[in-house]
């Protein structure tokens, strides 16, 4: 019942479980979750462990979580989840919110530039691609999101 980052004692209601490896890069919350206080969970957000923790903390985290140190210093996608998405991309495109598709496509492309979810969807299922583009264009925040990319 302490924040892993700062060792601040936490009441059970204050404990926040962090995706040790970030959800934004397709890592689920699992048995390797890290207990953090709200401040440090908010600071870590989508960062990889190696981008947030010191080397000493990474080594301690490896011992506590069971994740090998070599995994904690990597910046990579969860390949099993990526494979699952790519195996049925039209279904994911239709079931995710446009914001989720956009964010996921951006994070995948960041680490694996050769993988473009938009182009793959367009090649695989024109109807699903057209539907997604319509949803993206009709989002209330479409204008704000589009300007962030410029």
Report the count of strand segments: 2
Report the structural category: mainly alpha
The proportion of residues forming helix, as a percent range, comes to 55-70%
Low-confidence stretches at least 5 residues in length (pLDDT < 50)?
A: 143-150
Largest sheet: 2 strands, antiparallel
Order of H and E elements: EEHHHHHHHHHH
Question: Which word captures the global form?
Answer: elongated
Q: Note the beta-strand portion.
A: under 5%
Q: Largest beta sheet: what is the strand line-up?
A: 1-2
Please compute the radius of gyration using only Cα atoms: 18 Å
Q: First CA to last CA: what distance?
A: 43 Å
On the 0-100 scale, what is the average pLDDT?
Answer: 92
Q: Given the structure, what is the number of helices?
A: 10
What does this structure look like?
This protein is mainly alpha-helical and 150 residues long. Helix content is 55%, strand content 4%. Strands 1-2 form a two-stranded antiparallel sheet. α8 packs across α9 (126-137). The longest helix is centred in the C-terminal third of the chain and has 14 residues, at 98-111.
Outline of the structure:
This protein has 150 residues and is mainly α. It has helices at 38-44, 49-52, 55-65, 69-72, 79-87, 89-95, 98-111, 117-124, 126-137, 142-148; strands at residues 16-18, 34-36.
């Amino acid at each position: 019942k302490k924040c892993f980052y700062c060792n601040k004692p936490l009441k059970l209601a204050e404990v926040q479980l962090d995706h040790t490896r970030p959800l934004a890069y397709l890592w689920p919350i699992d048995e390797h979750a890290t207990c953090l206080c709200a401040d440090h969970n908010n600071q870590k957000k989508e960062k990889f462990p190696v981008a947030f923790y010191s080397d000493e903390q990474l080594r301690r985290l490896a011992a506590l979580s069971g994740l090998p140190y070599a995994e904690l210093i990597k910046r990579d996608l969860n390949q099993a989840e990526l494979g699952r998405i790519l195996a049925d991309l039209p279904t994911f495109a239709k079931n995710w919110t446009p914001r989720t598709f956009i964010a996921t496509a951006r994070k995948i492309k960041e680490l694996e530039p050769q993988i473009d979810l938009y182009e793959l969807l367009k090649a695989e299922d024109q109807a699903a691609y057209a539907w997604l583009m319509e949803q993206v264009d009709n989002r209330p925040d479409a204008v704000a999101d589009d300007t962030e990319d410029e």
